[in-house]
Amino acid sequence: MSFPRLRIGTRGSPLALAQTHQVRSALARAHRVSEEAISVCVIRTSGDAIQDRPLSEAGGKGLFTKELDLALMNDEIDLAVHSGKDIPTLIPDDLAIPGFLEREDVRDCFISSIAENLADLPRGARVGTASLRRAAQVKHVRGDLTTPLLRGNVETRLRKLEAGEVDATLLALAGLKRLGLQDKATAILSTRDFLPAPGQGAIGLMIRADDPSAQHCIAPILHEPTSLAVAAERAFLSALDGSCRTSIACLAEIANGQLSLRGMVLRPDGSEVFEVQRSGVAADAVAIGEAAGGELLPRLPAGLLAA
Questions:
Q1: Which of 10, 19, 43, 218 is the most exposed place for a label (fewest CB within 10 A)?
Q2: Tens of pLDDT along 264-293?
Q3: How many CB atoms lie within 10 A of CB 132?
Q4: What's the whole-number average pLDDT of the chain?
Q5: Nearest to 157 by CA among 130, 178, 136, 133
Q6: What is the pTM of this model?
Q7: Contact between 246 and 231 (Cβ < 8 Å)
Q8: SS3 of 52, please?
């Protein structure tokens, strides 16, 4: 079977392009074709255009996928590449997520030029972030710290940190690694203390649901353990109806055919944390995630998820 024309859609940020070229290279190797046989189409998204306010106030994480969804449905591209944590729990019926590439490091990292870790920051220090989850986790550990909004791509956030707009920030280690910037990390945070966002560190692939050719093309580069783990995390998020407007963290890990999931919801001010743990056979990933969300939901204070 000859390799078909394949058009990959992506956001234009350096990290999105790095992830897309990783996908492109993997596809070229799997099918023994040149990378030039696979075209890359850069599409500007609403999430990239909005820099002056939190995404939670502008429509949520779908702002990073909406334009790519439309390009897929309009047959302008055949495949969209997304950061796993940016994909909404609900996607259009015409689209499908066949799976994810092998996951990178899931951990967050602390970056600062004035302290080695969060504990060493001076009282009232500014930890800039655009993530409600990270802000809540920071405040849970250090209620005296402030968490001003810090938007922009990875390089922009690092420049703002270096310029002194904030005293520290938290970023996904996976993104730094993919950009070759892992040396910028001052400290790597344990998932015991800073549970990541659902899907963090994973690259997701989206196609049209009725496109068997694209499904066939990407099948060799999908990583089943990652796909199962992220499916469990997304099921947990979906059971809580989670979005960018809520402070939700979750991590599923697979070993010896068993999946262990830990999830949590935090008050925005970090004053309370509600946790759940579930485990089972990895093949039951979605059911485990749904059960964990269903167990946690009645324990949450009224209005917390709506907040």
A1: 43
A2: 999 999 999 999 999 999 999 999 999 999
A3: 22
A4: 92
A5: 130
A6: 0.91
A7: no
A8: coil
Q: Which residues, 6+ apart, have CB-to-CB distance to 7 below 8 Å?
A: 38, 39, 40, 41, 76, 77, 78, 79
Predicted pLDDT at 2: 60
Dist CA 99 CA 222 (whole Å): 6
Residue 95 CA to residue 140 CA, distance in Å, equals: 38
Under a CB-based contact definition with an 8 Å cutoff, are residues 89 and 210 in contact? no
d(CA 118, CA 133): 16
Question: What strand order describes the sheet that includes 127-128?
Answer: 127-128, 168-172, 108-112, 187-188
Name 149's bridge partners: 129
Q: What angle do CA 117, 192, 102 make, to 5 degrees?
A: 100
Coil vs helix vs strand at 81: strand
Q: Region 77-100: what's the mean pLDDT?
A: 94
Look at the chain and count its residues: 307
Per residue in 214-243, pLDDT (tens digit) is 999 999 999 999 999 999 999 999 999 865
CA distance 267 to 170: 19
Q: What is the dihedral of CA 138, 140, 143, 147, to 10 degrees?
A: 30
Does the pLDDT value for residue 54 go beyond 80? no
Q: Is the dihedral of CA 204, 226, 60, 215 positive or negative?
A: positive
144 in active site: no
pLDDT more than 70, % of the chain: 91
Catalytic pick from 52, 69, 78, 86?
86
